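Hi P.,

Sorry for the delay on this. The queue was packed all week, but I finally got your sequence through. Input first:
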Amino acid sequence: MRHRKLALVLAVALSGGLGACETDDGGRSGGEGEGEGVGEGEGEGEGEGEGEGEGEGEGEGEGEGEGEGEGEGEGEGEGEGEGEGEGEGEGAGEVVDPAPDVVEPGEHRCDSGPDSDLETFVLEMGQATTFVLAGVVEGTTGNGTFFLQSNEGQRLAGPIPTTPGVGEFAVTLPLFCGEQLLKAVWPGQDCPLVVVLRLTTSQCVVADLRITVTWDDLGDDWELHLIRPGGRINDDATDCTWTSCIGVSPDWGVLGDPADDPHKDVDDLDAFGPENIWLAGPEAGTYTVLLEHWDSGDPGSDGQVTLNVADDTVMIPIVDLAPQHVRTVARITFPGGVIEVVDEDHDCTGNWEDGCLDDLP
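Then the structure:
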């Protein structure tokens, strides 16, 4: 566990159909403020809410998104070229909506399915860039999954850790700018629970690049890094990560202009994640996405990195990230936002002290 990181942060499957469903869209206002209960993170924002999830079963393989399945080939999906380039490496895929036919805010369940205590489904989030989804779900047979989609089609998905037998859950999620649909899905014995929430942020910044990572329960604190052109890992001036980018930002692009500086608004210290970095107005050049595995997690830990570049979404599977290893995930070149999927592993166990000290990328 990164105790120094903890101090810094403190300071600054789905199976079967829905069957005969009920919809509950009652309302209970959530609290305002930073990261209270369900409903927000940095900035204002209110509320409680629920997210969506993923599950296996329905909607599998539907979704929009780019990339085809796990597509190798060039530019499978939406092609290569501007704002994307997911075809330039093997392993890129799409983020799939697990309940594509369920879009109305509210709780959607069958009589014998799981039930949650979430009650507020439409929220104005103000300038918040994150949302805390928390509550209790009864009758679930496993962890939930969230799915988030903006009006422009950008997507995210990942796990909602849920305490077995108790049903408690709490996860901090990044938000897109503007209106978005958040779904949370939990599996049940007979049918799943799907909760749909409509969130709207205002006076927000549209990011040119957004990077989100989630992982499994075998991982113990994955760390997300965005390296500016010419930079290196764990250099606070050129690496956006937990030491440099939470609550403050390194000065990138035009000196003294905060509009083109990166932000890490979601950080996680143990299993599942997510972690999130966003950047608007990037300077010209090639940015590198890196992952470190801290602590003493399992070397077989898997996860995924989702890149939202302009209006394009690319999901990159991460397989077998061992502790004190660094994975080069992707390079993104601006202008154009061209993505090159990389998947290179580096063993840093011989030069590790509060992170990898090797000269990467």
